[in-house]
């Protein structure tokens, strides 16, 4: 059985670090905490789980801090988490099982990262990341902000999921780091351009964000998932600016790089639904329901747009053209995901009235 070093970088995480460490303490052999300048009780809480707490002077460089944490590891594999991450019971068991059966020829293990949930507990946003890596390979983190772990070799895509449960974050920190780098005259990599544009969107600087997304796309050197995502982000910007045609154009632009993704299909479907072009909207919403996420996909994935949302919208569309049986069927699929959603319940009652109780009950 392999041994694992957990490596974390932290700062002022007293509200979440205990929960995080509690969820993994019986799975890993070593816990390494690198503190970048906490002024709260983070270190005191961490001391309840490990004595291996190191200081690291913050230099506006996440990769540097993570690489230092990795350099302190001593076990076979390195596992990394943020302080506001945790493993749920089911995933703790999966990780223990993985630990027992993992072939030591594996260089990296990817895990799902569940980022957001709806009110019914369904995952709405996720991404797959390299989480468990062979220490002897000395894999390095790259990028001062929105850093990534550069890996190669024999990679296993596992079914373990890490749950992100953030309570708060420094909303200006990353933007300020990018702005300082610009003032120093640094030339941004394509990845920097993309993530800087994302920060600008988060701060509602839409016109400026558009400029940097266009620079990123013009470089033709970005990761394919970032390229596709940037089309969606451009559509978001144009939506906020009230430019519906540019919003549609940005969604369609994504098809240059990949087959239609469900989030774009739903966006385009809504565009035509709002134009009362119902049959065209139906085409796009149906397409969204047919997408299957590849098991090795490392990009962000919007689960909402491939599960209940297109079916709820298809219910609306079919109702508009008098196809009430089809409307009912799609509402039932949406109900399987969101059984207590007031909209779904209302649709069910309304359509059962039209179809007649004996015809519509399961």
TrEMBL record:
It comes from the Bacteria. The keyword Plastid does not apply. Residues 5-104 form the Glycosyltransferase 2-like domain. Keywords: Transferase. The keyword Transferase applies. CDD domains: Beta4Glucosyltransferase. This is Glycosyltransferase family 2 protein. The lineage of its organism: Bacteria, Bacillati, Bacillota, Bacilli, Bacillales.
